[in-house]
Design a protein that fits this description.
about 180 residues; alpha+beta; Nucleoside Triphosphate Pyrophosphohydrolase; seven-stranded mixed beta sheet; four-stranded antiparallel beta sheet; 3 helices; elongated
Length: about 180
């Protein structure tokens, strides 16, 4: 099926409401082949980044923090919002240092995902950083409270299976890493 049979033409974009880390708006769109028109909500968000940071001993540097959406403490990768003037790798390195105090010898982009294209317009860059070592203290945002923990990379599949890691984008990053290694 050609993409033009799936595409909706945007007719009118409503006023955006700003919520600091994202804004939301509605637009109307018409599906040209059928003539149907609908109203759709879109979350306009900066891009995100997640970093798989590995030590020389193949330990993964992870963070534990309270998440207000689920009202629970989660086990995640360091990451956050990409500033407008940053690329994914640059933002990932900044977030890694801020959240953990670790600095890697090298970093590269593993891949880019779309967190939820049904109603979000941003992307999430997945970065792998190798040779990470402690280089200083955390420099957290005023409302961040983060514990830094490390796990042997070999334990990650069990952490996912057991439900210790539940964040979809974190699981996706590990999937990318595994499959990048397979194709190398």
């Amino acid at each position: 099926m050609a993409d033009d049979t799936l595409t909706w033409q945007i007719n009118e974009r409503g006023e955006a409401r700003d919520y600091k880390i994202f804004s939301a708006y509605q637009h109307t769109a018409t599906h040209a082949p059928s003539g149907r028109t609908g109203r759709f909500t879109v979350i306009d968000s900066p891009n995100w980044v997640n970093v798989i940071a590995l030590t020389d001993e193949d330990e993964v540097i992870m963070v534990r923090q309270f998440r207000h959406g689920t009202e629970a403490v989660t086990l995640e990768l360091p990451g956050g919002l990409v500033d407008p003037d940053e690329g994914f790798v640059e933002a990932g390195l900044r977030e890694l240092v801020e959240e953990t105090g670790f600095v890697p010898e090298s970093a590269e982009l593993l891949g880019i995902t779309e967190p939820n294209p049904a109603f979000m317009n941003n992307r999430c860059g997945l970065v792998i950083a190798r040779g990470a070592r402690p280089a200083g203290a955390q420099t957290l945002d005023p409302n961040e409270v983060i514990d830094v923990v490390t796990y042997p990379l070999t334990e990650v599949p069990a952490l996912i299976r057991s439900g210790a890691i539940t964040h979809t984008l974190v699981i996706t990053a590990f999937y990318f890493m595994e499959h990048a290694a397979e194709s190398a």
